[in-house]
Amino acid sequence: MSSIYSSSSTAALQKNNEFQKICLDAIPIIKEAGKFIRDESTRWSIKDIEMKGRNDIVTYVDKTSQQMLVDNLSKLIPDCGFITEEDVTKDKEKEYTWIIDPLDGTTNFVYGIPLYAVSVALAHKGKTVAGIVYEINNDECFYAWLNGGSYLNGKPILISQTAEIGDAILATGIPTSNFSMKRQYFDCLTDLVEVTRGIRRLGSAAVDLCYVASGRFDLYFEVGLSPWDVAAGALIVEEAGGVVNSFDGEGNFLNGREILCGNRMLFDSFREIIKRYFE
Ligand code: IPD
Ligand code: CA
Ligand code: CA
After folding, report:
1. How does pLDDT run across 208-227, given as a tens digit for each residue?
2. pTM for the whole thing?
3. Is the distance from the beta carbon of residue 173 to the nearest atom of ligand 1 less than 6 Å?
4. Quick check: 215 and 230 in contact, CB under 8 A?
């Protein structure tokens, strides 16, 4: 694949229609990585499992998916940087930086639970301008670009219109390795069990965010995440009309390891509940 984004067109890349073009051009690359993951789901074996840390699994499938993404996305934008979950030899941050989780939901993948995704965002000067999340087994590709709206397999998606927290379905991720905030987390969850309609834990933060964006979930919060878990999904929520923030309301959900989101009608009261436990 030859590059169509020459350095002379760098200024033009800042226009939203250029972000749209990059986003749409990246989709087949992300789907190709997704197809590789799907094919390998019946081929990998127990000997392929490595532990990166406590309850933190990786296999060659994560690593190869990432290498495919880095190789192919490098051809879309020359001199781009990469922030990736698995080790990579490329430069980290540049004017344009891809933020990649090559397989979000590795534990699901390894246990044969068919819900996992590829998550890729593009940041321009530190701001996310495009995001793609491909949920492999349902063949659902969620994507958004800055000021362009959010889409699922080509159709626009919108955040839920639920107005009462008592009618809201809440998604979350339960800590599996860093338990430093377990007391606050479970106390908060105990409160939320009583005030919402119910709680779900899918095992893929990227998919959680896309389900909020598409109105399937009303609310989501999690602690202990990394930029590659949330960068793409957060833009997809915002472009679908939702609100994303950190618990303190300062907006640092990308690097701050805490995130909550929902529609505008529910967001403030939801954050008030969370704040009570995490201040
Ligand atoms: C994990 C998933 C999970 C979340 C974890 C993440 P990984 O990502 O997004 O839903 O609860 O904290 O680390 O490790 O499967 O890429
Ligand atoms: Ca992840
Ligand atoms: Ca991952």
Report:
1. 999 999 999 999 999 999 99
2. 0.94
3. yes
4. no
